[in-house]
Fold this protein.
Amino acid sequence: MSGSPLVLAIQERLRDAGFTDLPTPFKVAGVEFAFTGAMRGRGGRALDLVLLVDTTTGDFGDRDGGRVRQRVEALSRALDVTGSRYVVTAVLAGAVLAEGIEALSETCRVLLVEGVNLDDQGKPADDTAKRQLDDRIRVLLPLTLPMPVVEPQNGSGPAMDQLIRALPADTDIALVNALIAASSDGEQAVTDAVASVINDAFQSSPEEEQS
């Protein structure tokens, strides 16, 4: 099902961020699960599974916090049975559910998206609305850095330059550069980059082995 205009706006934004739609309902461990929408990340976010819960239309009992929690918990158990490493995020689009959200947050990451002003085409109406939508799903989006707002000669500059200047003098710049390069691909990419740099650091060169 397509869901409300807010759900469609969320899906479009996540597609722009590299997520792809999964067919619903879908099966895990032989059990069928129905959600308004489901999306999967790519690249560094390949283990992100996003479930869209439409509290506006209430499809699949989505206005009932208890039913939503039971469905997500059942999916979580099915993923455990299959040995899946998916990180599940439930995006609640619309009004806050009356119950079950605290318990739901013990099972998966929960994001609430409400109060975003959409135009007659179902898109964020203006830049403020775009920022509001991004802010509510920020954890799923690639890391972006703000453009410089002041000149370097005034003691500031681009955000990344400020970060590098603030680091201790003995900071491993190779590590910093590796983390910055990996940050746009998600949490797993950053973790892999750190592991790679640490692994390289522990590999002795032939000269070191001979000494």
Summary: The radius of gyration is 21 Å. The mean pLDDT is 83. Residues 5-140 form a domain with the Trna Endonuclease; Chain: A, domain 1 fold (CATH 3.40.1350.10).
